[in-house]
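User: Thanks for the earlier help. One more: Esterase. Can you show the sequence and predicted structure together?

Assistant: Of course, both are below.
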Amino acid sequence: MTIDYRYDVQLPSSYDPEKKYPAIFALHGLGSNEKNMMGLLDGLKDDFIVIGVRGNLSQGSGYAYFHIKSIGNPIREHFDQSIRELERFIRCATDKYAIDPGRRYLLGFSQGAILSMSLALVMGEQLKGIVALNGYIPAFVQHEYPHQSVKNMSVFISHGEYDPVFPQQLGDANHAYFRGLSNHVTYKTYAAAHEVTSDNRRDFTLWLLQDANNNR
């Protein structure tokens, strides 16, 4: 299968194609790009295969995975297509690189967090875990998408307490929703707006390093 998305990949310095490595698929926010996400993951590049995926739609000077009608209201056709194509991308990248299929993570900010949480429900325990930074779960994903079990999935959710784009109540709702489905949910809030703080970055970096070595 060919890979349709543009992407950046960072392989561990000691990369051996005969071994299997945990992998992080990083999904950016609206109007951003894959390079911005790669910069958040410097502390993980020695231990993980890190893949920053560029949205395939133009959005200002950057990119998007789907367009929106309004804040919190994705265009359903775009969204459904992105879910299908990203799931396919994950499978293709797993075949192309020395990725351990039992240790695949999604990490997303804003639009990327929306997709990470949605893909978690669609793919279930084909993923080891997700990191969702300042996002929400669309109502149609909760009520209309077919869901797989995420009981044993590791979930890290964070949100800015002063986020003017997606209020903290959405982060609280994300936490409550996944807490009802998974036995392994971490939720943190930060005195921040719609952004990733250094404390947030430190916390999810440590969480990922620990979780990837957990043989649960």
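User: Great, one quick takeaway?

Assistant: The radius of gyration is 16 Å.
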